[in-house]
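FORM 12-B: Structure-to-Sequence Request
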């Protein structure tokens, strides 16, 4: 009877050792999934902010006002997603301001590295998104 009890005790200790060996790997995988999810969320937010900035720039009829509206729209969109607008850089470009010309908005957002080993190497440090739209061709208030 005694040898049987010893084997059962050893198996219980073996399970603890296996758990201790597997636990760090499991935690790294969970942290990677969470970090990847945050990067994906940030990417979608930056794309939405670029779209909002371009849409607001196109909807205005004045060159200076269009650029300032684009910057405001990007700030409000990022803030609506819960991201810090101060970590974003916005660039609005246009090929002459007039009917049918294209307006492009580039939004870049600095992201922290995910909480996994070598996360700063694997993940991008900056996420950028472009959006290009033509200005309205049939606005009645254009001169």
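FORM 12-B RESPONSE
SEQUENCE OUT:
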């Amino acid at each position: 009877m005694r040898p049987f009890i010893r084997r059962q005790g050893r198996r219980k200790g073996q399970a603890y050792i296996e758990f201790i060996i597997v636990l760090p790997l499991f935690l790294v995988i969970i942290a990677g999934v969470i970090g990847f999810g945050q990067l994906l969320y940030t990417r979608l937010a930056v794309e939405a902010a670029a779209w909002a900035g371009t849409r607001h720039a196109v909807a205005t009829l004045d060159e200076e006002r269009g650029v300032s509206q684009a910057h405001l729209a990007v700030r409000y969109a990022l803030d609506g997603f819960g991201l810090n607008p101060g970590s974003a850089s916005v660039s609005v470009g246009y090929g002459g301001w007039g009917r049918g010309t294209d307006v492009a908005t580039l939004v870049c957002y600095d992201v922290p590295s995910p909480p996994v080993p070598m996360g700063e190497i694997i993940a991008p440090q900056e996420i950028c998104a472009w959006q290009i739209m033509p200005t309205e061709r049939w606005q009645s208030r254009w001169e």
